[in-house]
Amino acid sequence: MKNILVIGSTGQIGSELAMHLRGIYGSEHVVAGYIPGAEPKGELKESGPSAIADVVNAQTIADAVKLYNIDTIYNLAALLSVVAESKPRLAWQIGIDGLWNILEIARENKCAVFTPSSIGSFGLETPHDMTPQDTVQRPRTIYGVSKVTTELLSDWYFHKYGVDTRSVRFPGIISYVTPPGGGTTDYAVDIYYYAVRGERFTCPIKAGTRMDMMYMPDALQAAQMLMEADPSRLKHRNGFNIAAMSFGPETIYEAIKAHKPGFEMVYDVDPLKQSIAESWPDMMDDTCARQEWDWAPKFGLEEMTADMLDKLTKKLL
Ligand code: SER
Fold it and tell me: Terminus-to-terminus CA distance in the chain, angstroms?
């Protein structure tokens, strides 16, 4: 039986991933790791164990791993791209020093480790259309630099010590449970909140700027499927391109307007977000993930929009 530690369990992805994994492996087998000041609440707190797991304090991770006999770690601790640009040292401490702590503990305790990479690991020189699995990775954000390093360090721990590291390059993740904070793709979440509240949305990204996006249920499925995949089929490890949909602001706006004809959007472009968005892929080629572990997304823009509007209406109104 698996015993799992989810680090960052109160963040956008972690909060839903912990509940998803509890549904599969049993609540008592999934520990919600958190940092002081961001304790689990509600269902996440009540449905299973939780423990302090602060990546910059290795002892807390080691204690949780030993106490709960952990064999698999999902490491969701990170600062997203925009906020990381203003706190680069902290972004590195969490993303890389923290990852080092986790990988060392994983080596000692024979744990598998999932630490997501991102579309942010690519840069301006990367082919933007059908971005290949193996291609140029020269990002100019500290977020991207830390994600490329995450991929390399995770691969190194696998080749050097046999630590079972695996990861995906997540697109922008769209969800309604816990809001993201400080990312370039956050607009594609925010826009639904404005639409449901009946407010005009001001978009920080220029029309025509396409980025890869994915609905949360597919992202959760991807993480869990990859960690369950037959290792003999894996030619890659860290990290797999995974794709579900690609759009610019004008396209998601039209998809929402099909449900809410009165919804209005204006543009007020944020230069930092725009420059980051322009450096990221328009659409990744996820052939390797499909071939090596049968990745296949379920949600496109229309299905996601209908579900987001429905769920957010129940949540907000
Ligand atoms: N959603 C992230 C960001 O915008 C990208 O992985 O920073």
Answer: 41
Whose alpha carbon is nearest atom 1 of ligand 1?
Answer: 172
C-alpha span between 218 and 298 (Å, rounded): 6
Q: How far is CA 79 from CA 91, 98, 115, 285, in A?
A: 6, 12, 13, 25
Could you tell me what percent of the chain has a pLDDT over 70? Answer: 100
**For residues 242 and 172, is the Cβ–Cβ distance under 8 A?**
no
Q: What is the pTM of this model?
A: 0.98
Instruction: Give the pLDDT confidence of 237-247 residue by residue, as tens digits.
Output: 999 999 999 99
Query: CA angle at residue 79 from 87 to 47, to 5 degrees?
Result: 140
Distance CA(243)–CA(265), nearest Å, equals 26
Most informative mutation of 117, 118, 150, 284 for ligand 1 (most atoms within 8 A of CB): 118
The C-alpha angle 227, 232, 233, rounded to 5 degrees, equals 75
- In the three-class reduction of DSSP (H, G, I as helix; E, B as strand; rest coil), residue 229 is classed as coil
**Residue 180 backbone phi and psi in degrees, to 5:** -75, 170
Nearest CA to ligand 1 atom 6: 118
Please state the length of the chain: 317
Asked about 161 being catalytic, the answer comes back as: no
Q: How confident is the model at residue 139 (pLDDT cuts 50, 70, 90)?
A: very high
Residues with CB under 6 A from ligand 1: 80-81, 118-120, 143, 170, 172, 183-185
Which atom of ligand 1 lies closest to the CA of 82? 7
E strands present in 11-148? 30-34, 50-52, 72-75, 112-114, 117-118, 129-131
Q: 29-71: per-residue pLDDT in tens?
A: 999 999 999 999 999 999 999 999 999 999 999 999 999 999 9
Identify which of 121, 150, 185 to mutate to test ligand 1's pocket (most ligand atoms within 8 A of the CB): 185
**Closest protein CA for atom 3 of ligand 1:** 183
